[in-house]
Amino acid sequence: MSFDHAHLLGIEPLAPRDITTILDLADQYADRGRSAAKYGDALAGLTQINMFFENSTRTQASFELAGKRLGADVMSMAMQASSIKKGETLIDTAMTLNAMHPDLLVVRHPHSGAVNLLAQKVNCAVLNAGDGRHEHPTQALLDALTIRRAKGRLHRLNIAICGDIAHSRVARSNIILLGKMENRIRLIGPPTLMPAGIAEFGTEVYDDMKKGLEGVDVVMMLRLQRERMDGGFIPSEREYYHRYGLDAEKLAHAAPDAIVMHPGPMNRGVEIDGELADDLRRSVIQQQVEMGVAVRMAAMDLLARNLRSRATTETVMA
Q1: Does 136 carry a binding-site annotation?
Q2: Which of 1, 161, 217, 254 is deepest in the core (most CB within 10 A)?
Q3: pTM, two decimal places
Q4: 264 is in an annotated binding site
Q5: Boundaries of each Aspartate/ornithine carbamoyltransferase Asp/Orn-binding domain copy (predicted)?
Q6: According to the annotation, is 256 in a ligand binding site?
Q7: Annotated binding residue at 265?
């Protein structure tokens, strides 16, 4: 498998063949995850450090499990109580990390671009676990794998992304990835939750949920990002659910075999009806969690291969 990237910082730098390479390998890891042979040695002898400057449950646990299943030495740093809180700069943190000689660095940060900055300062592979409103590449990849396994393909589908588009790095990464794979993308939500310059995204935009969902194959709901809001973006949660929360009545406008997705954590009764979220005939939300481990295993495996390849080349040249 060819994956010529030193880091995984976003979907934007990836070509369709890169996306397919990650998903093909993740497919294998997903199947292995359901067997007794779920552990491997692709990261044996390597050190993985997880740095989460924002709280996370699914993503951090998923990266930890992925690293351990591949044989890495995994260390998670409690960044909320770190030296950053004492005034240390991100660059100083990078220098400290360099002295520890990690091989893989997984970073989530509240500021867009912070992960890219770290990648320029450290001598290891960096994986972006979400930076501000910028990108969340592994979430988009696991969503893509979930869609591909459910639908049998990842091209020429009608996909609706619904809710808080403006504040969502998940939406941004999915728009980029699904666009690269030749899908028709619809963004549905109130005008107050649409980003500036939405016309440049190459998507269709709707503020009517029922019209936007007409005939779609995939319905991807998003969490209201209240921690990123600094004003009155919605009149009330009750009104938001009435107009934009996914329920059986609104879903009836989609294709009969449309699947329902949500990156989590869910606000039941705000973004999605609880019974619909748990309906295994339509909802693939649990599969998204499962595919997250597989995708992160694949991404770290491919980056580790590049690390070892470069180390071998440097040894031969020396």
Answers
A1: yes
A2: 161
A3: 0.94
A4: yes
A5: 157-302
A6: no
A7: yes
